[in-house]
Records
---
Amino acid sequence: MRLLAPQLEFAIHAEQTDAIDPDEAIFQAALKRFRPIMMTTFAALLGALPLALGHGTGAEIRQPLGYAIVGGLLVSQFLTLYTTPVVYLALHRFSRRRARKVVPRPVEAAIAAE
């Protein structure tokens, strides 16, 4: 079962196996995943265009659904391509900063030494 977006899986895998920094890993992942993401979005977008641009009997009922699908696809495309790498890098920097701040307390260090 997949828990992460494929773009993040590619970045984490590249970071671990190729030992590259997170900036380069997410950049490579974005380049590798760009085409499949765009193909999927455009396929769904082209499928929804007849709803949004339709005419004829009952078109006024279906047009809002088409507009919602097209708008949702455009917003999700923006979120996928732009904010996913930004959030990934921000979380990586946060976790690195937090890992540096974790210092054992003197009591815990004394117990560990015994």
---
Amino acid sequence: MTYMEDYEVNAPEEKFIIDSDTKALWAVRKIREAEAERDKLTAFYKKQIEKATEETRFRVDQLKALLEDYSRTVPMKETKTQFSYALPGVKLVWKKQKANILHDDEKIIEALKTSGKTEFIKVITVEKLDWVGLKKRFTEDGEMVDGISVQIEPERFEVEIKEEA
């Protein structure tokens, strides 16, 4: 039986007081033991959480794959940006592939100045690219300007679960 357990059993009505080096060292040892136990439990539960998270991610990915397969067999509603199929409380969605045009305004401004197409440069106090106007022209005539690149975003499948009221 430890000093504290003995103390608690034999003298529950007395208040424990640290009044010696021996009791102080005992208290420090108990603090270290408690902290070590806390650290051990924390490490254990972190591993359990990581394991549960990975297992859940795996199960969810499997179920989403099955829903993705199912979505290919049903008539999907098509909009400009997606295909979707509605079920009670959930919508299966295929986001259409889209191109994100990345642009470096400074490079484009220099290229526009060089080619004499300054109508796409807004002059305020600093030069700023008229991206809306240039993008419209870019998509109309397909002419590439230095500083523009196209990043293709692949189509992706989503499951949109509605919150229950």
